[in-house]
Amino acid sequence: MHKLEILLAEEKIQAKVDELAGRINQDYAEKELLVVGILRGAFVFMADLVRKLDVSVIIDFVAVSSYGDETASSGVVRILKDLDETITGRHVLLVEDIIDTGLTLKYLYKNLKARRPASLKVCTLLDKPDRRKVDLVPDYNGFIIPDYFVVGYGLDCGQRFRNLPGIYVIDQGSGKETEGEEVKGEMIH
Ligand code: XMP
Ligand code: MG
Questions:
Q1: DSSP string of 101-125?
Q2: Which ranges carry the Phosphoribosyltransferase domain (predicted)?
Q3: What is the ipTM of this complex?
Q4: In a mutational test of the pocket of ligand 1, which residue from 100, 107, 136, 171 has the highest number of ligand atoms less than 8 Å from its CB?
């Protein structure tokens, strides 16, 4: 059974998205922003974020996969779907769901930087700095969380739970899934 414990309720996430969008609107005022979402996990966060932006916005996506098991990054990153847009000379904001070891973003950052954008920044909803293996500090970060495996709001476990509006800590204990979920109150205040 998968047990889910609420970590961040929907309202708390939405308030944070508002706050991040406010900062981005200020920082990119008068500029056009190319927002690049990292599939698949960032799709929910990105959809909420861009609807709060009042600067000129273009959307693109990149899909990556890291070889290795489901819950740990191996550090070998493969681009499954590259950008459709050319980013040279443009202001690019990379949007990620969560930074864990930092290996995925480090690789992507270097790869995109080589295409000579006018600027390149990173926005993540969640950060697990305890697990970092490379030096990487996001320009915009929603929440710093402990080393939990989390699902919901775009994040998955075996491709499930991405549709949940809140973020939950998942106990991957004993294999089979459950229909219901156990909610035990917020762990982050
Ligand atoms: P790295 O280690 O390269 O990994 O920073 C980033 C990617 O790993 C996935 N990841 C998670 N996915 N719950 C998830 O659903 C988690 O707690 C988690 N931690 C890391 C995620 O795909 C992210 O893009
Ligand atoms: Mg992911």
A1: SSHHHHHHHHHHHTT--SEEEEEEE
A2: 6-156
A3: 0.94
A4: 100
